Amino acid sequence: MSLVxxxxxxxxxxxxxxxxxxxxxxxxxxxxxxxxxxxVGDETLDAxxxxxxxxxxxxxxxxxxxxxxxxxxxxxxxxxGWLKTLYPIWxxxxxxxxxxxAQVGLAELALSxxxxxxxxxxxxxxxxxxxxxxxxxxxxxxxxHPTRGAMSIGESAGGLPPDMLVENxxxxxxxxxxxxxxxxxxxxxAMCRVGVAPCSPFSVSRELMRDAAVLARDKGVMLHTHLxxxxxxxxxxxxxxxxxxxxxxxxLGWTGPDVWHAHCVKxxxxxxxxxxxxxxxxxxxxxSNCRLGSGIAPVRAMRDAGVPIGLxxxxxxxxxxxxxxxxxxxxxxxxxxxxxxDAMSPDEALYIATRGGAEVxxxxxxxxxxxxxxxxxxxxxxxxxxxxxxxxxxxxxLSGPTTVRDLFVEGRQIVSAGMVTTLDLPVVIERQNxxxxxxxx
Length: 441
Fold this sequence. Notes:
alpha/beta; 14 helices
């Protein structure tokens, strides 16, 4: 069966500023077969009055944190204090909490136009496994890039996390191998790829960082971690490693096109040049960085140098939302606050949210509306109050909706008329709120 999306205004992301007015998109076998006018298929979907973009790509998230939004004691804390407040709560999670929180987080992303998301899960209390979030993504229908995170250095050994949340390093590496062998798919159009992701330089050993890089390259998968998130992060690196985070990453094999780092708020010029030269990716998380007071990442400088950059909503305990189109607007606004109104255009921010994220995650089959790319497509109805009076409805980040009308992943519709089609979302939300109440109690 084939589907034609008709009469759309398309922002294809094949180049900045490109617009295709009154065009059709032919979808078959999970891919875009043609973009043009007068296309014919077995079924049609009218997109008159809508702007169509590639599905947005989320390069950094902690889905489990949707169960700990707006925790009062953590609302005004900097990163390290925030983590120390939340670690004991997270230690009470189990498989059900991981599964349900992932369902909610993925549904929230889908409604905001996201079709491909990574997830960084780095704690596994009470029998929880990465398998739980992978199962949730399968139910929602999201294209998924989960990463097997880890913490191995607890407080008693000078790390930040409590000892009850750290794992044996040999077991960590064994589980990485199990997950890659079981779930990782390197084929074009893959719905699940697995990455290796020790949590951060302040929660794992030098040896685990190095061994993880060796393992990932042996298995042909990507590497992910947090890096240079705030001034505390920089101070820790200087005090414990005698160098800046970028130097530490380079020393341990954590640079290259198969690596992406979250945040990078405090990279200096030499580190930006290093990342550009090695094609090391960055997941920019503007709302979380604002919420935790971490600062404004040097995105303009990184883009100009050639560093691959995507967007991340980060965890919902530090955002406290998971809306990716809003994240793109925030990224644009922060660069303008920092450098002036011409520092970043709406189209460039949307590029970072689509093609940029796909590049960071190594997905050269996603992120554009063009023949041969996967049929990951977001349809935005611009006939509502948000766009009323707009002279350029395709400038979604200036005056557009923050929820999609329709969303397709691999050609399958997972949002229709603003409703998730793959879950009974009210029931899932009720279950989530019941679990949150138990954690509070």
